[in-house]
Amino acid sequence: MNIRCIAPLLVAAACLTLTACQDTATSTPTATKTVTQAPAAGSADDTKADAPAEEIIAVPDFVGMGLQEAQDAAQAEGFFMLTSHDNTGAGRMQVFDRNWKVCDQNYAAGKTISAGTELDFGTVKLSETCP
User: Fold this and answer.
1) Is residue 65 included in any domain, yes or no?
2) Which of 66, 81, 109, 126: disulfide with 61, CB 3.0–4.6 Å?
3) What range does the domain containing 69 cover?
4) Nearest of 120, 121, 119, 111 to residue 56 by alpha carbon
């Protein structure tokens, strides 16, 4: 075997050896997911001064509005957890929100709830009558 063939093999072997022996403390860390649990109710963490207070908002009356209009109004009030369902029970998806109207809502108008609470609108197509 020629020295020109052996030299690159020796260099490659040396590199592999050094790579295999690399200290794990200096290696590139892999991405990890950190999961934190909310403190138990009544714990000392509930009184942290830097924790933002959950905003409490009175729920507007969305019944009779178009679904898109109701969603826009809810977001303007500070509600961002919004969902809707077919109020006929047929399980249809509200793909184009402007074709649907709100028949009912899961929280009565005037009730005060946390801004992080999910609002659910029961809907039917614009041409249909609410059940």
Assistant:
1) yes
2) 109
3) 54-125
4) 111
How far apart are alpha carbons 128 and 88 in whole angstroms? Answer: 10
Statement: the pTM of the whole predicted model exceeds 0.90? no
**One-letter amino acid for residue 121 of the chain:** F
The 10s digit of each residue's pLDDT in 4-56 is: 656 666 666 665 555 555 544 444 443 333 333 444 555 555 555 565 678 99
For residue 77, what is the domain's CATH number?
A: 3.30.10.20
Report d(CA 119, CA 69) in Å as an integer.
14
Neighbours of 99 (CB within 10 A): 14
pLDDT digits (tens, 9 = 90+) for 84-103: 999 999 999 999 999 999 99
Strand partners, 81: none
Give the dihedral of Cα atoms 75, 77, 78, 79; nearest 10 deg. Answer: -60
